[in-house]
Amino acid sequence: MITYPFQYKRASSLADAVALLADGGKALSGGHSLIPTMKLRLNAPDVLVDVGRLPELKGIALDGNELVIGAGVTHGAIAASDLVKQHLPMFATGAGQIGDPSVRNRGTIGGSIAHADPAADWPAMLIAADATIVMQGPSGSRQVKAEQFFTGLFSTAMHENELITQIRVPKHDGAKMTYQKFSQPASRYAIVGCAVVKNADGSLRVAFSGVSEAPFRDKNVEAQLSSGQTADAAAGMSILSDHYASEEYRKHLANVYLNRALAAL
């Protein structure tokens, strides 16, 4: 890539990373979201702060009733994790559908959700699983539910000088869950992605990626299904239209992949 001049700094600790970000740096982890946007001049940070080797951002562990995934954990590591397969199988299978092996072995869950591409896979899964995003900034740590984290096209509830450190997800033992997507054949991004979690008490959480400018929980579908009505996915939403799928076709696909997800349960 032919780029412009910028500084590269490797953070030595989480505190060091937060301090460098507060000085105007941009976090770099796996680079599979940030570097392509720099190549296209859609993002032009003056300072790249490498957080890819910070141990504070690594690891997958149980903490009470939650599975805690470090923001620097790769998609491939999530797909291969026995803990994830046991407690959040949708995450393991969904992570295995992201991109290709090079993307899965370098790209990280934290980088993906910070980038907030509307066609990314993680947002729908995180929303359906009722995940919480943990961020660290100069004022300390704070948490935001995934359902409120994604606010628009490539935009989130993160502040400019914050860094995602963890994703905390209820274990959902006894639940059934699935992620189904219609993917763009080259990039494997979701033209439409649908995540459904059916809890042990029968309650449902349904979320979509790729359909609108931001991923969303479809509470209308949840209410329709719980009352025995025919579900109408993405009703009332502003639907994306591009050279991959028109608004009408995307709406159709949302219903198709909702039904596939329900059948998979």
Automatic annotation (TrEMBL):
Key words, A-Z: FAD, Flavoprotein, Oxidoreductase
InterPro entries (UniProt xref): CO_DH_flav_C, CO_DH_flav_C_dom_sf, Diverse_Substr_Oxidored, FAD-bd_PCMH, FAD-bd_PCMH-like_sf, FAD-bd_PCMH_sub1, FAD-bd_PCMH_sub2, Mopterin_DH_FAD-bd
UniProt-listed PANTHER family: XANTHINE DEHYDROGENASE SUBUNIT C-RELATED
Keyword Flavoprotein: yes
GO molecular function terms listed in the Swiss-Prot or TrEMBL record: FAD binding; oxidoreductase activity
The keyword DNA-binding is assigned to this record: no
Domain FAD-binding PCMH-type span(s) in chain numbering: 1-174
Protein name listed in UniProt: Xanthine dehydrogenase family protein subunit M
